Amino acid sequence: MKRILLLSFAMALVGLQLSAQVCTPDPNVPDDAPIFPEPYDPDNPDPNDGITDTACINQFFDYTQTVNLPTDFSGLPIDSLVIPENGVTNLPAGIGFDCEPPSCTFFPEVLGCIYLNGTPTETGVFDLEVLVEIYITGQPDPIDFMFPNFEFPGNFFLHVRPEGDPNCDPSSTSELARQISFAAQPNPTSGYALLQVESLRSGEYQLLVTDLLGRPHVQRKVQLLEGANTIELDGSHLAAGMYQVSITDGRSAVTQKLIIAKR
Questions:
Q1: Are residues 133 and 176 part of one domain?
Q2: Looking at 110, 127, 161, which one is the last position of a domain?
Q3: With contact defined as beta carbons under 8 Å apart, do 110 and 69 qualify?
Q4: What does the alpha-carbon distance between residue 214 and residue 244 come to, in Å, rounded to a whole number?
Q5: Most buried of the four, 217, 224, 228, 260, by CB within 10 Å?
Q6: Mean pLDDT highest for which of 6-10, 166-170, 252-256?
Q7: Which residue range(s) make up the domain with 74?
Q8: Of 127, 161, 195, which residue is a domain's last?
Q9: Nearest CA to 103 among 116, 78, 85?
């Protein structure tokens, strides 16, 4: 009987530990990426870099960054890396962070994660930085370091949209996403791209291209037919950088990122 009780207690503890895990690291993180996704670098654009999710006023937001600590720092053996209490800076009001492990202490070759979460109360584009303390084996004092940096340049932009924005209605946006999907080709592009659109219904929609500050640069009506559609997009007048391409019915939107890379 005691064995059964002890076994039940142990299983309950395991369950509590599993439920307490705040985030799950991405097992597909590249070996050479200490934080993944990496910062978005306009000089080496990749649509998968940076913070790829958009936050909305008065809606819960969560996003996970994987930490993949290497074994050495500039040839020095790493013992551990610590993210201090205020280690993620420039966060919007209402958003905080947690870690897995909860101590925010990471060890080489053991995946962990940073979990941004909360309900934002201010709009804007927030340029986040991650401040870390790197402990070298045999040295008592840490080395202060920051991401992004010279080796991993770019930005971690977090976009917070106002209430009523087409991307901020989760029910209607997911409904539209079930009916319409598209991809831009090529991406990155020097200016011109084709939007390959699959639609389950015919109708008139709005094509919208905005920059990272939410300013519109292309806005026109498009007619979609049920099935495959091709939309020509002329972005030759746009400056190099990342843009959001949306197809919207006025209530909700389906959005993809587009990189303009000038040659």
A1: no
A2: 161
A3: yes
A4: 8
A5: 260
A6: 252-256
A7: 23-161
A8: 161
A9: 85
96 domain-assigned: yes
How far is 29 from 39, CA to CA, in rounded Å?
14
Averaged pLDDT of the chain: 85
Other beta carbons within 10 Å of 4: 8
Exposure string of 18-55, with b = 16+ CB inside 10 Å and e = fewer, is eeeebbebbeebeeebbbbbbbbeeeebeeebbbeebb
Q: What is the pTM of this model?
A: 0.68
Pairing of strands 55-56, 156-161: parallel
Of 210, 205, 194, the C-alpha closest to 245 is: 210
pLDDT digits (tens, 9 = 90+) for 100-126: 999 999 999 999 999 999 999 999 999
Going by DSSP bridges, is the β-strand pair 61-67/227-234 parallel, antiparallel, or unpaired?
A: unpaired
